[in-house]
Amino acid sequence: MQNIIIGTAGHVDHGKTEIVRALTGLSTDRLDEEKERGISIVLGFAPLDLGEGINAGIVDVPGHEKFVKNMVSGAVGVDLALIVVAADEGVMPQTIEHFEVLRLLGVEAAVIAITKIDIADPEIADIVESDVKGLLKGTPLEDSPFIRTSSVTGEGIEDLKKLLLREAGKVRSKPDYEYFRMPVDRVFSRTGIGTIVTGTTWRGEVSKGDELAIEPGAAKVRVRDVQNFDKVLGKAQAGTRTALALHGVKTGEVFTGSQIFSPGIAERSSMVDALLEISAIKGSRIQNRQRVRFHHAAGEVLARVILLDREELNAGERGLVQLRMESSVAAIGGDRFVLRRYSPMRILAGGKIIDPVAGKAKRFRRELISFLRSVSEGSAEEIILAVAERSGEMGTTNKELRIFGLSSADIEKGVTSLLGDKKTVLIQGRIISTGILETAKEKLCATLSRFSAENPLIWGMDREQARAAAGLSEGPIFDHILKEGSSEGVIFFRGGKIRTGGDLIEFSDDDRLKLDSLDSAIKKAGLRFPSAADLLAETGDEIVLERYLHILQEDGKVTKLGQEMYVSRSVIEGLLKRLKEIFEKNRSISIGDFKDAFELSRKYAVPLLEYLDNEGITVRKGDLREAGPRLGGGIR
User: Fold this and answer.
1) pLDDT (tens digit, 9 = 90+) per residue, 568-577?
2) Which CATH number fits domain 436-500: 3.40.109.10, 1.10.10.10, 3.40.30.10, 1.10.3210.10?
3) Residue 203 DSSP one-character state
């Protein structure tokens, strides 16, 4: 079963409502005022079974110029247009304006009904038909079929129904979206039921009991019932006129222009980037920062147009824009919209949303313009790659890509293709551009190389210091670079530090001689360890001494006691061996015992014992020391 929406269009009193009644047997005028005045004011709806498995919902729009806002609301989401032109009047102002709305909204299928042929000469009808063809020339609706009808005599009505069936069969099937979305075009309540909203299901499907969210506001609601023209449904699918009875919301909390989504789908924003096309109607023009009425889904919001790649846009021209709203909207990439003048309220332009959650843009920025063009004109793969590149080191996710209007099938296929072509990588579930990854890796390696060149005696940089110095984010890309660099033999680790260029420092002959001399001096001092000040004579420079001592520690040749005291590692190992022998004979020892055993003064004994306590080699019990848990395990 295929569900489509047919939307009427045409000048006031050209017979839109009458032709819907002739097709369906129902009047779409439901207000007393509409019945009294004989014109449609609000949207009307009627079901039409076209046969052959195609069910249509007809949206009958007002034709009067005062109600173009309502016409625009009804035209959004139309699959097939029924353009109505009266044979006795021909093309009129609202005929042109309604056609522009359909064209700017991207409607690609239509049937043209020349009505009231019972009161017009065939020659006049020929002229009218020729005028309409001139209006359609050069547009996607240029080859639309024509039919002449009379709602009074019934002439052409059955043939019209057959034409609608034929053209409906050409309507492209809707992509498979997992989430539900429906703009609300009517809100009311009924006793015993509560709040009811109606609209055209744009995406996915909805069933009784589903949890949904209303935007703006993200209010959570539950579906009590699902209907289509008073018929209870198990579920409503995309392309269906849908009525939902909702639990959890009052009529004053949801309104015409709201949208209903599956939870967690929509993101509200007061700025969207878009591709805009100016109406072909003579005199249409947009200047930078012009205030307009933004019609999207079933709602209207005031906005200002920021021209991103032009100084101005004239009739028929296209350009990239940012729309800055006076209140936030929930949109998805690919959504169509229409702009009307702020005053007088005439159709001005229409277009397609590219980035529905845009940041504040600066004009004539090459990177932004390139990104918007890639997303607007590109394939799924090109869109995903463009978004991944713009997202930098954090990359993007399948969920984040949905706001650009991609279906899950498109995303899965596109990501698989990009991974296969090695244009992206997948890191902790995030899609990251290979170019971004390589640039980040180059930045880190350059930072490490520069550090080593400036500090030849220091093995490497602290991990976090290196990340910050390279200007990399805290995201998953940094860990990935380290892991990949290590496996490739490009990045090396030691004690929380990282370096590139090799695991070992290449010392000059002079440095090696001084290191050996310093090592010998510390070893010769034994347990009567020297301080840094005592060792300064070995280098004559405090900074150089500090670096040499650091190298000896990293090489495992020297152990640091406290702040400024150094003991040879081999000497410490000898101390531990002797200490183990002492504890095999004695349960505990005093400071005096320790001093006597190693022939040390208190100056050296106390720092050594504090070091042994900290290492777990000894355990202090009052004034005594007992063997610690690590006595047999050596030093770290």
Assistant:
1) 989 989 999 9
2) 1.10.10.10
3) B
